[in-house]
Amino acid sequence: MKRRSFVKKAVLGSMAMAIGTDIVFGATMPKGYRPLVLQDPDPYKLFGKDKEMVVLNDKPWNIEAKAHLLDDKITPNKYMFIRNNGLIPENIDVTKWTLTIDGESVKQKKTYTLAELKSNFKQYTYQLTLECGGNGRSEFDPPAKGNQWTVGAVSCAKWTGVRLRDVLEDAGIKSDAVYIGYHAADVHLSRDPNKEPISRGAPISKALQDETLLAFKMNGEDIPLAHGYPLRLVAGGWPASVSGKWITRISIRDKVHDGPKMTGTAYRVPCNPVAPGEKVKDEEMCIIESMPVKSLITYPKSGATIKKGKRLNIRGHAWAGELEVAKMEYSIDFGATWNECSIEKPVNRLAWQHFSATVDFPRKGYYEVWARATDSQGSSQPMLLPGWNPKGYLNNACHRIAVKVV
Ligand SMILES: Nc1nc2c(c(=O)[nH]1)N[C@H]1C(S)=C(S)[C@@H](COP(=O)(O)O)O[C@H]1N2
Ligand SMILES: [Mo]
């Protein structure tokens, strides 16, 4: 009896969290009942998102930011994109949440409670750039199926947690380990409990990096439900699909992980360039690892008007997967000539970098400001679309804003 009321309290607690306030007469709510607000929810209220965020899909929820919303150096929840492949888990009981480390290449399968993870391992905080592999997909021609992200499927929040490496080493990693794969608590769209919406992973070398965390805090608070509460993997600089949300199990694999969305064409690009629209065999598709160099002008908003004779201060962020951004430039003549921006160092490895510049316009009229980042190995963003690929990944074309001088 005691236990039952305890479970009910936990269920009510997680519903209250999803709604954002207490369910006052929750104690008399029928068992298994879903409050109306959760049946037909307002995504902005439900997820605490700003009204200017754009809903691309509601089953599953996919919501993106606009460039000017990403102006903060540390992305707050209200401007953070949501990318879900399945249904957000409900009725989370954090007191019962566990993480299991298993797989062919674990020395000893081990299960940890959240409290154990927090107390047994040292905690670290890093700001990490998470960009969806499909960010920018909407520009590809012929079009690629999937969420038509424009530029807003990127974030750089501050994540706190324990190093995945410390936990994996505590369970023990066999010498034949090559990959890790995550398993999570979200629900397949079919609601079939035997199907996982997504189960991706990364090579063991990425799993063992200092900045790869099992996080339980985002920007100093509990991770918002939509972003993986109560435990998520964060692997900055790689397609954000590697950063599994609502993590319950991590397998240390003796081969490349083969969970859903790891195989076939998912999160893969042709190993060699192909012509637009060309069919590519599965064997000729390679897994995306570090993301390409990219940048975003976050101020001003595209469409800005300024007075003749006034200079325009522009600013934004640039990132380059596992590399650093070495140079940042802007052009006001459609890429014919480029001027340097100033660019800051990242606060830590795998965090985006901030740039700014003061722009002079020669006379009244219409301009576009294009921004181009170059990484530490000398690769720069393509001015317009990069290589077409069947699933529309890795569009790192220069971000462009319109400006009128009047
Ligand atoms: N369990 C789980 N983890 C997941 C996903 C998901 O659907 N389920 N989506 C992935 C993808 S494709 C992306 S781009 C990021 C998005 O993270 P965010 O919603 O916190 O911005 O989460 C990744 N982790
Ligand atoms: Mo993604």
Q: Sheet bearing the most strands, described?
A: 5 strands, mixed
Number of domains: 3
Tell me the series of helices and strands, N- to C-terminal: HHHEEEEEHEEHEEHEEEEEEEEEEEEEEE
The distinct ligands, each listed once, are: the ligand Nc1nc2c(c(=O)[nH]1)N[C@H]1C(S)=C(S)[C@@H](COP(=O)(O)O)O[C@H]1N2, molybdenum atom
- The dominant shape is globular
CATH architecture of the largest domain: Alpha-Beta Complex
CATH superfamily of the largest domain: Oxidoreductase, molybdopterin-binding domain
Uncertain stretches: none
Mean pLDDT: 95
Structural class: mainly beta
Strand residue percentage: 25-35%
First-last Cα distance = 73 Å
Helical stretch tally: 6
InterPro entries: Ig_E-set (IPR014756), MoCF_OxRdtse_dimer (IPR005066), Mopterin_OxRdtase_euk (IPR008335), OxRdtase_Mopterin-bd_dom (IPR000572), OxRdtase_Mopterin-bd_sf (IPR036374)
Cofactor: Mo-molybdopterin
Domain Moybdenum cofactor oxidoreductase dimerisation: 287-405
Domain Oxidoreductase molybdopterin-binding: 88-259
